[in-house]
Design goal:
- By secondary structure, the protein is of the alpha/beta class.
- It has a single domain (3-67, 78-236), classed as Alpha-Beta Complex (sialyltransferase cstii, chain A).
- The protein has helices at 3-17, 21-34, 37-40, 43-51, 88-94, 110-118, 132-138, 166-176, 197-220; strands spanning 55-59, 81-85, 101-104, 122-127, 146-150, 158-159, 181-185, 225-228, 234-236.
- A 9-stranded mixed beta sheet has the order 6-5-4-3-2-1-7-8-9, with helices on both faces.
- α5 (88-94) links the parallel β2 (81-85) and β3 (101-104).
- α8 packs parallel to α9.
- The protein is globular.
- The two termini are 19 Å apart.
């Protein structure tokens, strides 16, 4: 999604959750300072080389989902691209699957993401107002290729192609970089692992935004956006969701 179209949606997200753009900008600066020169260079070009023309599997970490059952996929002319949201990297590695890309704001089991990065996974690290300590702690630990992202206007070294949570941000990235198709695995917008009532409700509110943003993406993209169900079937993602009727 072009930033001009995304900016209005993010303003509504900021208003609902009380996010400060000043804190977001400070986090972006912290991330830029810790990225190596090679990781600041040509981020979109590097991502497009990995994604364009590929069938993308975007992997979430819904309760009980586990790693995607790749053996159930139809025969493809190229292996699918595993694009993993944050903590789902641990589930994939445990099953012997090394993601092609990981989208992370560093609030999950980051050790697994560092391990996958050392095995060839490109990690898209997202800066937001609450994760500066995690940026400072973890970004220097990644041995492999990184790309930086944030919620504000794109910079030469930081991208923003839309999306709010790690999962829907991964789908927006696949679409923007020319994936041939996108299958969503392990997405659940009504169940969360969080047990604290206040944090649970905040998490569910974020997931409602993710659900609705994906609905808009499905309705406007020329790339098929599919939900991959646990029985092995795929169905088009529901386009009735909208950020104006969350």
């Amino acid at each position: 999604m072009e930033y001009a179209a995304w900016a209005g949606r993010y303003r509504a997200i900021q208003q609902e959750f009380g996010f400060s753009l000043e804190r977001e900008a400070a986090a972006a600066e912290a991330l830029e300072q810790r990225l190596r020169p090679r990781d600041r260079a040509a981020p979109l070009e590097r991502l497009r080389r990995r994604i364009e023309g590929r069938d993308a599997i975007v992997v979430g970490r819904a309760p009980g989902a586990g790693p995607p059952p790749l053996w159930r996929l139809p025969a493809l002319d190229r292996p699918p691209l595993l694009l993993v949201a944050d903590g789902a990297a641990a589930d994939c590695l445990a099953a012997g699957l090394v993601p092609s890309l990981i989208v992370s704001d560093l609030d999950g089991p980051v050790e697994s993401e560092v391990t996958a990065n050392g095995r060839g996974s490109l990690v898209v690290v997202h800066a937001h107002g609450d994760n500066v300590p995690a940026i400072e702690r973890w970004v220097p630990e990644f041995p492999g290729e990184l790309v930086g992202s944030w919620a504000g206007p794109p910079r030469p070294s930081l991208i923003n192609v839309g999306g709010f949570t790690d999962g829907d941000r991964a789908a927006f990235l696949a679409e923007a970089m020319g994936a041939r198709s996108i299958r969503l695995w392990g997405f659940d917008f009504e169940r969360v692992r969080e047990t604290d009532p206040e944090r649970r409700e905040r998490k569910l509110a974020k997931l409602r935004w993710a659900r609705n943003l994906l609905g808009e993406l499905a309705a406007t993209s020329r790339v098929p956006l599919l939900t991959w169900r646990k029985d092995g079937t795929t169905v088009p993602y529901e386009t009735g969701y909208s950020t104006s009727t969350r």
